[in-house]
Every structure is written in C-alpha cells, then in structure tokens.
Amino acid sequence: MAESEIPPLWLRPAPGPHGERRFRVPALLRLRAMREGLPLVVEAAGAGAPLCLVACDRAGRELTRESLPPAGPAVLFLPRGAALLRLEGGGDLSAARLGYFPVQKVALKLHAFANGVFPDTPPVRRWKAAGVAARTLRGALHARIFASPARQRADAARYRAYRARHVEDFREVPAAAAAPRVSFLSSAEDLPTGNLPAAALARCAAALAAQTDRNFEWVVALAAGRLAADGPALAAAGARVIEAPGPGKAAALAAALAAAQGGLVCVLDPAGRPTRDAVALLRATFARFPDCALAYADEERLDANGTPLRGVFKPAFNLHLLQASGYLCGFAALPRADAVRLGLRASAGEACIYDLMLRHASSLARGRIHHIPRIAFGIGERAPGFSPAEIGPAADALSQLAGVPVEAVAGGRHLRPLFDVPQPAPLVSIVVPTRDRAGLLGTALRSLIATTAYRAFEIVIVDNGSTEAETFALFDEIRRLWPAIHVVRDDGGFNFPRICNLGVEAARGDLILLLNNDVEVVEPGWLGEMVALASLPGAGIVGAKLLFPDRTVQHAGAIVGLFRYADHWFAHSAEDAPGYEDRLLVRQNLSAVTAACLLVRRDVWNAIGPLDAERFAEDCNDIDLCLRARRAGYDVVFTPFARLLHYESASRGRKRSKEHRARLKAQRARMEAIWHNASLVDPHYNPNLDRKSLFAALAAEPDGPREPRTDAV
Questions:
Q1: Interval 243-290: pLDDT, tens
Q2: Which domain holds residue 256?
Q3: Is residue 452 within 8 Å of residue 643, measured between CB atoms?
C-alpha cells in the first residue's frame, strides 16, 4: 500500500467522560452506513499496545466491539447508527489518534492532494502525483476490504436485499410437453439418521412442495436397514423411496437413477433446498435449447437456520475450473439417458457426482452446456472446491480421465492435473520489445536465462530505437549467455503491436511468448507450466500470474466488460489471496489475459492474425487478440502456477499527456465498436456481479441478461 505517501484522514477527538478517547463519525460515513453498515479501513497511531475500537450510537450505547492493531491499517465494520468511535486499551491513550482512508475515487485523490507526502513537488505535478498514488492506494484498500470479515458482514445484508428482488423471480412455467420431467436423485448417505424429518430435510421437502413447476419427482435411495425407520417420513415429505443395494453414496444414487422416470436427472443434496423456481429454470433451459445436454445454475449459502448469507455466482462453462474445483456439481441436470449410459462409478466414492459431471462435460461440445445465471439451490456454508472426503477420489477420477498424475493444491481443496510437456520439447520464441532501459531489460533477460527450467527457447529482442551504449553492451552480454538470441531493429515510433509482430516474423518457434521487458522470472517451472497448457487440444493462449514488486497481484486474468472495457480482477490483492470462490488459486478458462506474459501457439497466431497494429497501437491489442482467439474456438487459460514479477509500465512510464489520453480514448472507442465491451458480460464472469468492481462485488441490480448461456463470446 501507499500509506507512506497518503496518511489516513485523521478524525477529530470528541469530549468524553473519565478521559475516554472518543472520535465522532463523520456525517458522510454515517450516511453510507445507514442501510446495512460499512466496511471501513481505519488506522490508529500513538498507542503502544493492541486496542479495542467500540462503535457507539449517539446516546453512547455500544453497538460493536472489534480489536485494532496499535499501528497500521485494519478493516473494521461500521454498523448502522454508529455516531461515535471509542478507543480502549492498556496504557495512556491521551495521544492516540484514529483515522480512516476514503475509498471513493475523487475523495481519495482530493485527500491525497491535500494531505499526501510528495516532497518538493509544485502544485501541478502534485495533482498528478496524488492521482497516481491515490489510484494505487485505492486498489490496495479495496483488496483489503474484499478479504476482510467486515465485508462479509456487509455483504450478507446486501445479498438478502438483492435476493428479495432477484431470486425466485422466474415466472415462466414450461408446458408439460415442452421439456422432459425432472427426477431429483438423493442418497441416504446425505441424510441424517433417525428422528426424520430433521430441520434441513423438512426445509428441502417444503421447498420441493412449493415448486412453481410440478413436473418433477424426488427419488431417495435408503439402505435396507433404514427403510422401516425413515422411509415413511420421507414418503410423507413427497419422496419416492427405494432400497439402495449396498453401502456407499454411488450405489445409492445409482439405484435412484435406475428407478428414475423423468427425462432429466439432477442430484439433490437433501441438506439443501431448491428455490421455488428451480424446476422451472431447468426445464425452461432444456425447452429453449433442445440440444442442451447439461445445465447448471447458481447457488446460495445458508446459515444453520436456513437464512441466506451470500450467492455463489458461477461462470459459463469453464473446463479447467471444473477439473480443478468441480464448481458446477452443486445443482446440475443432464438427460437421464446420458447419466445411465455413463453410470455412477462406485470407485469414485464421495466424488461420484464430480466423476459423472467431469466425464459427461468433457465429452460434449461447448455449445451444449448451458449455465443459468440465477440462484436455484441453497445449502449450508462450505469452502469452494472439494471436502476432505472428496479430494482423494476426485483426484483419482480426474487422473483416470486425463491420463496424467493429479495433485491436490490450495490447502487440499482443489486439483491440478500435471500435464506433460510434449516430447521433443517445442521451441518457444520469447519476443521481448524494448527501448534502452538496460537495467530493467537486464533483470528480465538474466532472470529468464538463469531461473527458467524449460530450456527449449530462443530470445527475440525487438529494439525500438535504443540509443544508449549500455543497451548494446547488454545485447552482447546476453549473446554470450544465451547464443539463441536475435535482435530485430525497429526505428519507428512506439507501436506495441507492430513491434511484437516484427518479433514474431523473425521467430522460429512453434510457440510464441510475448514478454514485457519489465518482468522478472522468480521461479523455475513457469514456462514448462505454460507450454504444457498451450499444448492441450483446443488451447490457444495461456496467461501467467503477475505480481507487483511488493508481491501483490498485478494480473490474475482480465475480465472483459469491467469498467466498460476490461480490467485485471483482484489487482493489488495479497499474493496468496483466493479471489472469488478460490478462483485465483486454480487454473481456469478466461476470455483474456495480458500480453505482458502471453503464450500463443504459432498455428493459432497464424489462424487469427497478428496483433492489430492499425487500430490498437498502444492499448486494447492483447484483449482484442484473446477475444479473436475465443471467437475462433480456442481456449484462453490463466494459470497461477506460472508466476513472475512485473514492474508495470516501468519501461515507458505511467505519465500520460493530453494527446496520449486522446489516443487511448480513440482506441477504446474502436474496441467498443468491435466487441461492445460496455454491455458485454464476460462468459467467465456473472451478470449478478458488479462490472464496476475489481473484486466481484454483488451488483446493485443484475448487470446483464440472466438467460441461459454458453461460454461463447
């Protein structure tokens, strides 16, 4: 963060009894917290021990109490009605101060200009310096807020308000002949023993009874020993109860599948509850898209009493995310004939649903898989990915399908198949545009040569008009270190696509890596990981995880449509931040990645054309390239297992003249004319999420159509 340049906005102390250290909450903050409270980044100073911050109303009544470090920023929850903040702690607090950081763009920039520390900077330059510092700090502040418990408290209230307007609001009920009947399949393994119906089961049965579309059945498989005790209660709850042939979840679900009479089947965890329009949503999708072979919906998480806490909003079909996390298995329907043909394998154990969905989805054309961006099912809070009982058999199932070893990652909740690099190893041509800045380029090239384990690469430097002797001396040094190097001279003005395209023309490799001159290689396996992914069938482009020098996230993929263009989601988050539903921790399909480190197959490059040097000389060119690859049917993949440092804009600088800003604006306009970014909801994002947030915040209102969708751009 940039706290060293921009201090907190210090609050004025308020008189208090018995020497209490109290501060008034500014009217603007009280207003913002009026509806559901507010996550607030605060900082204390002048205290030598941990503190307690007490939020009180106007009458001094305590509302909340939270711990606060004696120094440094922390995110706390400001409750509705808070008018005073009181510091408590050991020792003398008479000199203690309390401040907060504004997070709104204009407010933070004005605060930075008025109170920031920019030595020897005249007013005009100070305004620009304040803007740069505020932009950096704002990203870091939002990253802190996203990762905080305070945000979760605020989000729960926001979600319940959103839910009242936009969940269970699907009014269509397809005719009986329009789509097959749905058979919900449940296993005794998921049911509590004895004393049925339990509270959760009762909620599930009530939710099924309230369905707007009655074209469904509920088939529950019970072990023989439980039929007499539990069968009548389940039957009374509306289930058709059958006997499971043996122990285990897979055997019970296989028996339920064999007894199912509907044309569609959906595994239903009876610990959860479908929304009242769940059946209608599934059947309407299959009615509208007769070729649909798999449909899945968004979910919500509930507390122990069944109160909604938050939504789980999913991307359109995402093969790599399915492999890593099984993200679509919670509520998904497929034709019964397909489920019977594939079968539920007992060897998959607790991961039998994942195994079925993985085998089914992997065999389908992408256009036959539809995501329904509406909440259709709720269940208790659980971490993304696999449970401890599921992770082992899930890894075995994925390994059997992919034909490669699979390891558990991210605390044992997610999977990473260890795809092989083709043999012989394909040549990677690493294209590095540059202009002078020998120190910066030297770090990139020396770290590349010294650290990279994958050695089948050549370096193509495209020199865009360097004049400094140190630069040419560096070229000679690198030739001695790595003879497979070519220097291509380009004396034209700065045009990033043209420069890169010249490098690709001179390259000999079957794989092309576009690499900025302001990166640093910090781990050996990065290039092998990218090559393995680029060599998979259907792959087109692979992007890496890039970190700022302070080890916060600079790039973990780009979401198209953010801020009416595209942006790097979760920028400035901690290096190991999980992101939305752990998506920063695993491989996933995306719509775009940055060209600062972008690997593309030569045949894909030839098929979709080079970077567009005519329309996008400085901006938009990498997003445009990725979208062209997606439209041509190739995958764009992000991997967190290739990490580099990125000294963003260090080679050309961040300052923008009026003319430069005008050029960028024109390029954005051309991008909009081609791709309609302003209205595009990225298939790998969700219309229920805010397209003006880097951190996948819940939208105030749906931010795009909520019709069933494929992963097509």
A1: 998 888 999 999 999 999 999 999 999 999 999 999 999 999 999 999
A2: 175-417
A3: no
